[in-house]
Design brief:
heterodimer, A: alpha/beta, Transcription Regulator spoIIAA, 5-stranded mixed beta sheet, 4 helices, 5 strands, 45% helix, 20% strand, globular, B: alpha+beta, Heat Shock Protein 90, Arc Repressor Mutant, subunit A, 15 helices, binds zinc ion, STAS_dom_sf (chain A), RsbT antagonist protein RsbS (chain A), STAS_dom (chain A), Bact_StressResp_Reg (chain A)
Chain lengths: 128, 359
Amino acid sequence: MTSPRLFSILRQGLHLIASVHTALDDSQLVRFQADLVERIGADRARGVVIDVAALDVLDSFGSRTLRDIAEMARLRGAVTVIVGIQPDVAFAMVELGMDTGSVVTALDLEEGLAELDRCLAASPLPGP
Amino acid sequence: MAAVGPVGSPDQSCASPDVAALIPLVRRIVAARVPDRATVDDLVQETLTRVLAAAGRVEPGMLEPYAIVTARNVVASMWRDQDRHRRHQHRVVDLRPPPAPDEDVLAGEDRAAVAEALTRLSERERTTLLAHEVEGRDTRSLAVELGSTAGAVAAQLNRTRARLRVEYLLVSERVEPPTERCRPVLLAISSGERRRQREVDAARHLLECEVCARLSEPLMERGRARDDAVRVPVRGDADIVAARQAARELATRLRFSPTDITLIATAVSEMARNIVRFADSGEVVVTELEEPRCGISIVARDAGPGIPDVERALQDGYSTYQGLGLGLPGARRLMDEFAVVSETGRGTTVTMTKWRGEA
Ligand SMILES: [Zn+2]
């Protein structure tokens, strides 16, 4: 991609920090999902924080994609925390009838990482 | 087969006009006047879209006459356009430079029509309207001066504007209403007061009176400031984002609350996605509304396969693609008014409105 990067995935210890940098369309969301799930496997990540503060909306497709990512991460042994859902966006999701399912959410990156540590401490890892 | 979704959320007083029930009637009227099938399809959709746009402003019993009047007007304006096109072609062949439209004259005529229309208001109506529109006085200070309330002044201003529009149309079209009933009917239509429309039996008058039939359309559609419409062609995923950003920009300009702006953008996103998924291509038109108060109207339109059972598609959990059926009912909850007209094999038009909360 030559255009400004739409998202980044960085490793921090056992965790991955995936940040969305702009409003993504459906195909870009699908690519984000594919890249992230692949990285979770490749890096054997134990936790994933997805920062969606830059997303303008979380409509049915966006919400569903986040849920799918968390589910696939879980199947690969990683916990997902979503951070940065703006209050207006959260309200619209509820009105729309969507939610992030059982996915854990937190206010910002710091809290997200703290939440990850709590989750991982509570459920000691099954051997890979 | 056709189906229609009710207008408005269940908790809204807004009645649910059965626009789909009008399709055979509209089709009959158009088909009787237009020979080719494709054009008939286009004009039927165009008529239904206009009827839908006006549906919130007319009382339910008036929808059928209004559809008849609109269908005739739509056909007439199509012939006019074709005629203009023919004349234009002729001109090109002639290699004569087209005469430059004298815009000054047009603007001057328009001003004269407004001035003339203003003289037809009562002194009190005129003074209040000018104080508000020209001097920029707000309703609260006017209320103090008039010994009234801000709400009453606002309502009065709306009625005055409605009258001014009627008089302006009469002046600029150079018509004198042929009957005693014309003015009250036109006024009821212009103000969008449904109770008043029923009282003066506007529906029947529209069918009987050619002048009012012609004038009713600009009066009913005046809420849709066409110049302020943003049209986004929707063909692929990127256009979904473009459509919701266009809606966001207009809503921001209209000073909607941040929460409402996000609700609107989300609803637009859902409807634009339906176009991409089911119809390949279509368009989203975002328009500013001024009457009865500030709002935003979104029309998502395609010529795709249509929705066979709209009632069902509006139910939560109805599965359309990838087990995800939240598009219609979800978007409907996000907006204040929501209507779907779909004809199998001919396309779907979703019209949704959000009103700005009282600031
Ligand atoms: Zn009349």
